Amino acid sequence: MTGIDRPRIEAAVAEILAAIGEDPARPGLAQTPSRVADAYAEFFAGLGRDAADDLGEPVPLEGDRQAETVLLRDIEFRSVCEHHLLPFVGVAHIAYLPGETVIGLGRIPRVIETLAARPQVQERLTEQIADTIERGADARGVLVVLDASHSCVTTRGPRQTGSTTVTVAARGAYTDPTARAELMALIGRGSE
User: Which of 2, 30, 41, 79 is in the most buried spot, having the most CB atoms within 10 Å?
Assistant: First the structure.
């Protein structure tokens, strides 16, 4: 990907403003095309980037024992729904069962940020996060739970302002229902 084409975004936004009956040159709207181009450059900064690069180099574990579950709860994220180009925001809960290495905890939110910074659907985003962590961390198990509020549901159509969507992706050891249930209970405790 060559990057965001700001002039093209600005022209398209000016056209949308004109199409809804507004004057794009009106003082309150004159800078809107530029502001939207700035926002889109940020919203879609993950295009053309490999999220696996965000994991960095795994760190070998010392000794004979394998690490137990690593769980990060309530990682805030935002993305843009590819169906309506409206934002969705939520939290991610990520658990992984290390193999012979571990990854830096600060690396996981970076993976989420990169994958979320492109036109997305929550279901695919959940799967992409799980796949990236499983491969990049050589994890024996991965569980990803996303809980998000979608503007296309809360501000238009049914306008269900209190609803959220939860998606789950499990890999390896966490496809076992008992292991997954234990993690779900731990995730739920963070909300109390």
Answer: 79
Q: What six digits make up the tokens of 74?
A: 């309530």
Question: CATH number of the domain at 6-43, please?
Answer: 1.10.286.10
Helix (H, G, I), strand (E, B) or coil at 82: coil
Domain ranges of the chain: 6-43, 59-189
Structural contact between residues 91 and 75, judged by C-beta atoms closer than 8 angstroms: yes
Which region among 1-5, 122-126, 141-145, 176-180 has the lowest average model confidence (pLDDT)?
1-5
CA distances from residue 173 to 15, 107, 170 in whole angstroms, order as listed: 51, 22, 8
Give me the active site residues, please: 81-84, 122, 150, 152
What's the average model confidence in pLDDT over 147-157? 91
Rounded Cα–Cα distance for residues 163 and 175 (Å): 27
Least confident of 12-21, 35-44, 65-74, 145-154: 65-74
CA dihedral 125, 127, 133, 136 (to 10 degrees): -100
Instruction: Look up the pTM and report it.
Output: 0.93
The Cα angle at residue 112 between residues 187 and 167, in degrees rounded to 5? 50
User: For the domain bounded by 59-189, which CATH number is listed?
Assistant: 3.30.1130.10
Are the C-beta atoms of 129 and 117 separated by less than 8 Å? no
Q: Are 33 and 9 a contacting pair, CB within 8 Å?
A: yes
